[in-house]
Write a structure and sequence with these properties.
With 135 residues, the chain is of the alpha/beta class. The chain has 2 domains: 80 residues, no CATH class; 39 residues, no CATH class. 20% of the residues lie in helices and 25% in strands. It has a 3-stranded parallel sheet with strand order 1-3-5, with no helix packed on it. The chain starts with 5 loop residues before the first strand and ends with a helix.
Length: 135
């Protein structure tokens, strides 16, 4: 087992990390622009105040050959990002700004609005039918 590393207030842009165990590594106030991580174990790593501008994440998983461990993104700005061919099963969004977000070209805010409207209509219809039986 390796000793966890702390990388703080560094410019390591353009760096290449390959076939390494970087689990429990802490990156804080780091410029990772154009850095590359290939075949890296980042389990338990933390990234705070890190610049991932122009980053690409490919073939990333949360535990293919071992138990999956949930990943948390908090206070992350995904402005103008693209997610393609990703698996979002079990993903929870809470307290997120969804303005401008689309799924297959459909605005998510409009989807949520339509869903809530449909649910309200369905609930009202059920309530009317239920109450109608007792009148």
């Amino acid at each position: 087992m390796h000793e966890p590393v702390e990388v703080r207030a560094r410019d390591i842009s353009g760096s290449l990390f390959k076939k390494s165990d970087m689990s429990a590594t802490t990156f804080s106030d780091v410029n990772l622009e154009k850095a590359s991580f290939e075949n890296i174990n980042l389990r338990g790593a933390s990234f705070r105040a890190v610049d991932f501008g122009g980053a690409t994440f490919e073939c990333v998983n949360t535990g293919e050959d071992r138990p999956k461990v949930p990943v948390t993104f908090e206070g992350v700005e995904f402005d103008d990002c693209t997610f393609q061919r990703c698996i979002f099963s079990g993903v929870h969004l809470s307290g997120c700004e969804l303005k401008g977000m689309t799924i297959d070209g459909i605005r998510v805010t409009e989807m949520i609005k339509a869903y809530k409207s449909t649910r309200r209509d369905d609930a009202a219809s059920l309530l009317d039918r239920f109450l109608g039986k007792w009148q």
